[in-house]
Design brief:
mainly alpha; Cytochrome Bc1 Complex, Chain D, domain 2; 2 domains; two-stranded antiparallel ribbon; two-stranded antiparallel sheet; 12 helices; 4 strands; globular
Length: 386
Amino acid sequence: MLCKPLTIFALIAFMLLNILAPSMVQANDLPDLTLLGKFLFFDPNLSSPDGQACATCHRPDYGFADPRQNQPVSQGVLKIFYGSRNAPSAAYTAYSPPLYFDPTMRPGIMEGMYIGGLFWDGRVNTLEEQAQKPFLNLLEMHSPNQKAVVHAIRKSEYADLFRQIFGPDALDDVETAYQYAAQAIAAYERCGEVNPFTSKYDYYLDGAVQLSEAEARGLALFTGKAKCMNCHSLANPDPDAFPGIKPLFTNFGYQNVGAPKNPDNPYYGIPRGFNPEGKNYVDLGLGAVLGDPKQNGKFKIPSLRNSAVTPPYEHNGVFKTLREVVMFNNTRDVAGANWPPPEVPENVHRHMPPMPGTFGQLGLTDQEVDDIVAFLQTLTDGYQPQ
């Protein structure tokens, strides 16, 4: 994203942001709206009680995902509360289109599939919509209403920057101010800080570095025998809207890969007023959003960028390591592999008829699994070429 010199208000706001989150913020020039969004993104005073910012579950140094990697799902500002899902990375979500149905037949997906939307279940279409949800989610930032969030912004050290950008009365009307805040956060989530394309793989594409032998073998497997790129695409999702961008490693579609239920999910133990089903809760994903049983158990196919630093994996955090994920994809349907049954048994993605060499029975050796993991580790941003 393009940048411009900071105004005096933006400079003051940036200094304050460094005081609030010095370990996460680097000095650079951002457009005023983007800087305001960054300030809001890192502000821990917008939850009720204070203490949880957007960045709490989307830390830059953890690929804009949750740094509490020993927890399968994300914890709210009230420590007795957990969401039902693992907070996905906020990086590169700016490239996801609005939710739509694509009837195109694909390998193993002859019926077409839904593409786009945000969150694991596609329930909103824009970053502006997405930015509004966590503040008012009682299991997350726990603010009782928009008024509480706007009141905190009015008291903030960046309120003058807010008014400078949106007008002197920008914080007077609660609903309008709340929309403005979401607009600013979305601007930050679209900027180059959140979507930097600075992995070893990116430098490899530029000809600046070479992959190791294991990484190169992993790339060949990713695009060949393992068929990873069928879902984690290297193609540009929208060349007209995003000309020249590098691979995002997702097609932004939805699949039920047969992920098992996670018995360690603390969501099952939260007060019954928030999860009446307790341990019997089943997450239907896209199917619940659309009210369509044919989509039950389907979740957004995430970008694999930064996947090496964003464990645990799947919507419920059931897998703790990348190697475990790759092994599941490799042997899910192999007799004797002993994977638990899927949480949602209907609509599980399988090649029909089932056959060796397809998802769930890919036939990868242990060395090949390790090579794929080695390649995935090249997708972590912040690589410094030697």
